[in-house]
């Protein structure tokens, strides 16, 4: 499918190697991955955008003295519904995106010249409920950790960031996968945390570029209000134009999660190799078979 040298996922990597290989893989396969994502993630993606726009519009009322009141049960309920809608749609999209990208990588590892888009689509569909359940449970665990004392949330996030990769490359029940994630991370938590942090910062910085139009629009409205010596209410700055620009910015950010998904595969295999050396053993077996055939 691609004339470039095949990347070996099953090997140990340092932080720099993981970052470089992530972007190298995406340079060669971004178009193919996006083709599959269009077939698998279009509906979750659109739902996430609708939820983002709705939440932005509703939450802006919090800052409006004449808008929602925190003491009004109806207003509080509306904000809660907006948050819940955003939470569910984001998990839905996140699960489908990761499932698609990781199944693509699995097909690539098996045979880069025989990647079947429809096979990947079927695999994503067949495992949809597993990934959705895994996404919800992982999010709740991380959220609960943050509510406890913030630090537990960070601790949980590191191993749980690998659950989708474990589900694709190893399989198992939801509880088994979560258990494996904590086992896999044992002894390598700080290194994995650092890698995830760097990936997260890079994705955020790239995503920041797409936030510029919304930032410029907000600044220009504030500048006009200041020049007219009028007060610009925070809620007034969040009109439908801002909501639209912010939603487009979010769309770009959501697509950029593809980088995180690819990086998670490299992180998973790096940790797996450090614990089990399965890739090295496979290479030895392959060399042995080749010598046997030559004889």
From TrEMBL:
Keywords for the protein's UniProt record, in alphabetical order: Membrane, Transmembrane, Transmembrane helix
Keyword Transmembrane: yes
Transmembrane portions of the chain: 36-57, 77-105, 131-148, 154-178, 190-216, 254-271
Name of the protein described by the UniProt record: Glycerophosphoryl diester phosphodiesterase family protein
Highest classification ranks of the organism: Bacteria, Pseudomonadati, Bacteroidota, Flavobacteriia, Flavobacteriales
